[in-house]
Amino acid sequence: MNPLSSKLEERRFPPMSEVKKNLKIDWYRCPIDRKDLAKLIVRSDGQALIQAGGHLALWLLTASLSVYFFSHAMWLAFFVCLFLHGTIASFFTAPNHELCHRTVFKTQWLNDGFLIVFCLLGWLNFRVYRFSHNYHHRYTLFLEGDREEILPVTPSLRFLYIVQLFTINVFGGYQSRGIIPTVGNFIKLARNDTNNPFNSWGPELYEGHDKQRRKAVSWARTVLGFHAGVVVFSLAISQPVLIVVISGAPFIANWHRYFVGVTMHCGLRSHVSDFRKCARSVVLDPVSEFLYWRMNWHLEHHMYAAVPCYNLKKLHRVLADDMPKPRTLVGAWQEMRDTWHRQKTDPDYAFDTPVPAPKDGYAMNANDPLASSVGDLVNREMAEK
What we know:
The chain is an all-alpha fold and about 375 residues long. Helix content is about 55%, strand content about 0%. The protein has one domain (about 35-375). It has 21 helices and 2 strands. A two-stranded parallel ribbon has the order 1-2. The longest helix has 27 residues, at about 45-70. The chain is globular, with a radius of gyration of 21 Å.
């Protein structure tokens, strides 16, 4: 048996009630002047509309062009446009992530409204993700508390897998959402089965929060109902292509989202209280950075998660002298693949990112609610049992 697979199967996790009580992590955050941080945390509806509205507008444009080319039997143009459309839709996980933090829009009804739209179109359950991601931020790669990311994982470049990512993603994988597991998990959750709804979580995700568990089940039914409606409507007006461009889009051409998304944590150290060693930032071109909602600045996001995505590059500049140099996308993949090859013979190996020595003053930031804030992931929900 693969040593990585066997190691995963051997893991046993304590209840989250015990984790929240006993697991206290003194995270190292690069020192930053509180006034500078307060400026960076300020939210802008204008910048948020450019980001969220722009992403949605690109989806609508490629959807419209795909339908137009299909209806005129312009097949080459149709498949090229559908490929671009799927590439854009596969990045809907990024707005789900950012809008769940509730740090994007200053006006919260806009934040929540866009979140609903992106999650309907993207086959995403924000009610599950908020709880999962809250724990991911508070216990990043401490496996007893973070079951959103469980390392080690394989940065796969298998031929058949890559073919799937450039065409139709059927079976999915790490940082890759296939039709079968995604729809299957929605059906499972809609039937009120919360065992392993997403990632490696089981019913313990909603331990002590039954009302929120019911809301997650309700949202799963809403998404299934929405896409069932898309199918019925499309067939009723004799436009089956709408099923592809609306319901099928997140599973088409997942290649770019995969190559970018795998870099966040893959190959890095677990059980270490320095975000610089368990998260990775990469430099991307402006288009990719836009589609990814600036989450390529992933280390900065983990260190100060209350900072809106459009300010993360500014945050990087402020912290640069205390941070590792961001990798290129190719460099990150070389690092991950080299690490994976070593892990095949040494499963406990992880890449230890060289970082500057910790600076004085981080303890003050660690105890500052402004610095340790992860936005409003579940503050409202946690109050509702």
